[in-house]
Write a structure and sequence with these properties.
Number of strands: 0
Strand content: under 5%
Helix content: over 70%
Largest sheet: none
Radius of gyration: 21 Å
Shape: globular
Number of helices: 5
Length: 155
């Protein structure tokens, strides 16, 4: 009977180890990647914070989904290139340009006060992300950091 218990314990430990390995491998090196549901949730939260009317909410959701799809295409291009981007500055510039284009669309949809609040939120989120990166990697060595729920702003 003791031998059976040991095999069950070993089997359970092995199963849990494999599960943990699989979970960590799925997220390793990829960072956080949003889903369509995450986008919809974020837009709904912003709609409340910015006090968007129904028409604005629909337009903002369309802008965010378009932005999400463009980002997916860029990520796929990077994956197809086989490895990390060789020119990080070029990639950063491309992403900044895409965000700027999205912001122009936001400016056309939102009132001036709503747009200012949106930009303030964006800047605050960027500051928080920079602080998290600095806390996770105070020496500035290496390009990546491992954090749970990266990019979601959750503590």
């Amino acid at each position: 009977m003791k031998r059976v218990v040991n095999f069950k314990t070993i089997g359970l430990a092995l199963l849990l180890s494999l599960l943990a390995l699989n979970i960590s491998a799925q997220g390793a090196g990829r960072g956080f990647q949003m889903t369509e549901e995450d986008i919809k949730e974020r837009v709904a939260n912003n709609a409340k914070l910015l006090e968007l009317n129904d028409e604005q909410h629909k337009k903002v959701l369309a802008v965010e989904m378009d932005f999400y799809n463009k980002m997916q295409i860029e990520r796929q291009k990077m994956r197809n290139a086989g490895g990390p981007p060789t020119d990080r500055e070029a990639m950063r510039a491309k992403m900044t340009k895409m965000r700027d284009e999205r912001n122009v669309e936001y400016e056309a949809i939102l009132t001036p006060d709503q747009y200012k609040q949106f930009i303030d939120q964006q800047e605050q989120r960027q500051r928080e992300m920079r602080e998290q990166r600095q806390q996770s990697n105070p020496d500035g060595e290496g390009g990546t950091t491992e954090r749970s729920e990266r990019g979601r702003g959750r503590n």
